[in-house]
Write a structure and sequence with these properties.
This protein is an alpha+beta fold. The protein has twelve helices and twelve strands. Helix 3 packs antiparallel against helix 12 (about 390-415) and helix 4 (about 120-135) runs parallel beside helix 8.
Length: about 450
């Protein structure tokens, strides 16, 4: 056989082999190429394939007129400038349930879907609450193997839902790699991710012993919701949160056509829908004239876990004076760095890669949504300050409240009203909780 024929034979065999590999898992290889493109800066905005999560648009967030805003124009302008400096797509700030500002970058608007990254995890916590309150899940302390049949007899099935939700599962981590033949790559990019997730090995420490942020925990929670409900994840999300929320239609990323939903990331939704979710949290489970989950469950979501003062149930807590340890981890890309402590003691937030944020401050009746680049090697510019948006709004609210108090004092003086009646009021009075906003109470 001539040398040319040998080369041609080798080329043909190579092409056949590559074709066989591709046909075994087309989605894996498409995503492999897409991942390489992301590293060079060619970043897609939406992920495919996906499954719709339908909303009916029935809940309209009210917008404050310029002369009725309860946050100063200067503070709102500073927030918008900060958002623009970090290439944000959207910024929405609500105070007392009313939009104070709604800003979008060029090419983006209220209909644009953005990639949530790990903010999706916090929605899982809400859904676990609805499942417990409807009775399809018995308790947060149930073993996950009760709802994932493949782990019914497996030692990993003894991990509780609670341990998954507080990021203390005792499961090993998959690390990022560009090797498409490893489970480290395939758990997120394969066209059939469920077997890979279920192959996750046990780590060298016991569940419940420490905090270890792990995306696999959220993937398992999504599987548990499907196992408990007998529904596809997107259907359950739609029926028990998205439709009652009264928002826009969202998309859940799937590993393949009609495949498994990704639940550790990758819900694509509008900024207004994230604002609605933030208002749901602020209202302690009530939105659109409906109660989706009890106030007691929301309280539990935002209570420090036994293994981390910075984390509740799939939700980040910002009220510790110490900085979140993720502030110092290079992999976090500076998304948790801050210039000062948060000014309120009750701040909590949904968080996703690239500083996707829904901040909630109950004592100030405040919700802030910031969305921006989520994919690529480094989606967030250096210099992000995780307190800037929250503290800027709090300072403005306090300043306007103090100004109103001063004007009231002056009015009473002019009317010869005893000034003692107005001296000594605090600059801000937190919104009181009532039995209409239950904590430990049931509805």
């Amino acid at each position: 056989m001539s040398r040319l024929r040998k080369y041609l034979l080798v080329l043909v065999l190579l092409l056949v082999g590559l074709n066989v590999l591709y046909l075994e898992d087309p989605w894996l290889w498409r995503r492999y190429v897409q991942t390489l493109m992301q590293l060079t800066g060619d970043v897609p905005q939406l992920l495919t394939p996906s499954e719709p999560v339908t909303g009916d648009g029935s809940f309209i967030l009210p917008v404050a007129a310029q002369d009725e805003r309860t946050i100063s124009p200067q503070a709102l302008q500073a927030a918008e400038s900060f958002a623009a400096r970090f290439d944000s797509y959207a910024l929405i700030i609500l105070h007392k349930g009313v939009i104070q500002t709604e800003w979008y970058a060029e090419g983006w608007d209220e209909t644009s879907l953005t990639q949530s990254q790990s903010m999706h995890k916090s929605l899982l916590a809400i859904l676990i609450g609805t499942a417990i309150e409807s009775g399809i899940i018995g308790s947060i302390e149930d073993p996950v193997g009760r709802y994932i049949p493949e782990w019914d007899k497996d030692p990993r099935g003894d991990i509780t839902l609670h341990e998954l939700m507080i990021m203390s599962s005792g499961l090993a981590q998959y690390t990022f790699t560009l090797n498409p033949f490893t489970d480290d790559f395939r758990w997120l990019y394969s066209g059939d991710t469920k077997p890979v997730v279920l192959r996750t090995p046990i780590a060298d420490w016991r569940s419940g012993d420490r905090f270890d942020y792990n995306n696999i925990n959220a993937e398992l929670l999504g599987m548990a919701i499907e196992g408990a409900s007998g529904q596809r994840y997107a259907n359950y999300l739609e029926q028990h949160l998205w439709a009652p929320l009264g928002g826009d239609t969202a998309l859940v990323w799937l590993d393949s056509d009609f495949g498994k939903a990704f639940t550790s990331c990758c819900l694509m939704a509008t900024a207004r829908d994230w604002a609605r979710v933030g208002q749901l949290m602020l209202n302690r489970g009530r939105i659109n004239d409906r109660r989706i989950v009890t106030g007691g469950w929301i309280d539990r979501m935002v209570t420090q876990s036994p293994v981390s003062m910075w984390y509740g149930l799939q939700t980040w807590l910002a009220y510790a004076e110490e900085a979140n340890p993720r502030s110092f981890k290079p992999a976090a890309g500076g998304a948790y760095s801050r210039s000062e402590s948060f000014l309120a003691r009750d701040v909590y937030y949904f968080s996703g890669r690239g500083a996707q944020r829904v901040y909630v401050v109950p004592s100030y009746d405040l919700v802030i949504v910031r969305l921006g680049p989520a994919l690529g090697a480094q989606p967030l510019k250096a210099g992000w300050d995780n307190v800037f948006l929250v503290n800027g709004m709090i300072r403005s609210i306090d300043q306007l409240a103090e100004r109103a108090r001063a004007e009231e004092r002056q009015r009473m003086i002019e009317e010869q009203t005893p000034v003692e009646q107005v001296i000594g009021r605090p600059p801000h009075t937190p919104t009181p909780r009532t039995e209409d906003q239950p904590g430990a109470w049931a509805d």
